[in-house]
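Appendix B. Chain record.
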Amino acid sequence: MSLHLERVEWMPSPPLAPDDGPIDLSHLQRMTLGDAGLEQEVLAMFSAQSARILSEILGELTAMPAGRAAHAHTLKGSARAIGAFAVADAAARLETAFSADSDPSQPLAELGAAIAEARAAIDLILRRS
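Structure tokens predicted for this chain:
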């Protein structure tokens, strides 16, 4: 009996050093398989999600501290998926600060700045499309 094997194209890992911009467009294109409509959709979803999660983290600083690390973790994964590596790195630092029960003010400020930069870039990308 003969087996039929299909060759699966290799997909490279994210770059060790991301693009210069807040969104690694090459990574985004690989993750969306070059589908421009899908790129626009995931960018719009990430923009809304990142603003919502940041707002929830800020609200949880005093109200529900248990969910803070989980929110930072969710944002880290979403950011990595679209190539927003500065957001992902800042979210990882914030997640670590929350998990270690250390002062989150510096990583939280970095996350806010990275999200603002990524959302501004996303707005430009979506307006050009």
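Further analysis of this model is presented in Appendix C.
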